[in-house]
Amino acid sequence: MKSDRIEFFGAAAGGAIFDIIRREGPISRAQLVRSTALSKSTISLHVDRLLKVGVIKEEALQTDSGPGRRSLLRFAADRGIVVGIELGVTSIDVAVCDLEALVLASHSEALDIARGPVPVLTRAYEIIETLLSEVKQEGGSLAGIGIGLPGPVNRTLGSVVSPPIMPGWDRYPVRDEVTTHFGVPCFVDNDVNVMALGEARAGSARASESFLFVKIGTGIGAGLVIDGQLYRGFKGSAGDIGHIGIDGETTRCSCGNRGCLEVVAGGGAIARKGRELAESGASPFLSETAARFAAEDPPREITAVEVGIAASQGDTAALELVIESGRHVGSVLAKLVNFFNPEMVILGGGTVNIGDAFVAAIREMVIRRSTQLATVDLVIRRSAFGEQSGMVGAALMVVDELFSTRAVTEMVREFDG
Length: 417
Ligand SMILES: [Zn+2]
Prior knowledge:
Blueprint: H1 2-24, H2 29-36, H3 40-53, E1 56-60, E2 71-75, E3 81-87, E4 91-98, E5 103-110, H4 117-135, E6 142-149, E7 153-154, E8 159-160, H5 174-182, E9 186-190, H6 191-202, E10 211-216, E11 220-226, E12 229-231, H7 261-265, H8 267-280, H9 284-295, H10 304-312, H11 316-340, E13 344-348, H12 356-369, H13 372-375, E14 379-382, H14 389-402, H15 405-416
Parallel strand pairs: 3-6, 6-9, 10-13, 13-14
Antiparallel strand pairs: 1-2, 3-4, 4-5, 7-8, 10-11, 11-12
Helix pairs in contact: 1-3, 1-15, 2-3, 6-14, 8-9, 8-10, 8-11, 10-11, 11-12
Zinc ion (ZN) binds at residues 243, 253, 255, 257, 260.
């Protein structure tokens, strides 16, 4: 019994040391001794095992000319490749990455998710096969596939559940279908969580332990990272802030309620209100744009992008709409900042790019409506990651799962036999 117990702690310590090497590497053995308070010989024992298992590798310091061997340890990021997919409502982005989420090949195209799971996944498989053949020479073997989906995801089922805008996808076994097709593990999550993970591991929030990622597109959602880990909540719906009610608003939402944040201030709402400004003539710029779009073949409709352009051109009504929308988002974020006290709020999604006035209005409301202690060092910024955050985040989700502390502990234990 006693030796089992020691063995258990031994393997678990290996997993924990791997975790430090993955997150903080390249790192020396001496640094590991300092940050774990374990003895030099204990560290050496675990490091040697991790090297044999093949999850880390050792690099000699080239500048070192003195006696004795000096080297740095790092995650063996070239031991395999992973695929990250971001399925949007109208687009698909696929990346093949190494295990540190360096993009080796990628492809994006328009794809309507309403076509249903079978046609959409069939197209995704074709894109994956093409990209894999491109990187075959340099990459290792395929280790796993991660998918961000634009709806509420039940991670136990590996599928979306009652998505308002994805006909045919309700409880479709996405994870199991992809796992069967490629014969490697597949992991699914909602797109906002996946983006938050991308920001945490490779984007604007790499140095931040606790932050809020807010995606403002057609809809609005948030991902919470707490102490470096994505917080999904009890059933996986944490951060679903688009359906928080705005006082005094009555527009009906796809969820069945009225006055939800996303039907009041999301990209779809801004577009709808912009079209109203064009029709009523309240916005000369948008009226002119609408007339021009209507004459095109095929005709187009005003979106949030045009509202942003009108605002930046000094169109008063459009500017007021942008500011009002930003303030609604900001008033909800202020409540979250008071509740959660994050270090950063990162704003992503296409609608964030409609103009500085939008972000300024969000920031103004958060600062005005949150407590001073919560905002004194709070950073509110646009994502610097841009288009890549979804697919890279999906790839990182796979790496996090395959090389979790528990998974590596298991690998070490199996190795020990
Ligand atoms: Zn709603």
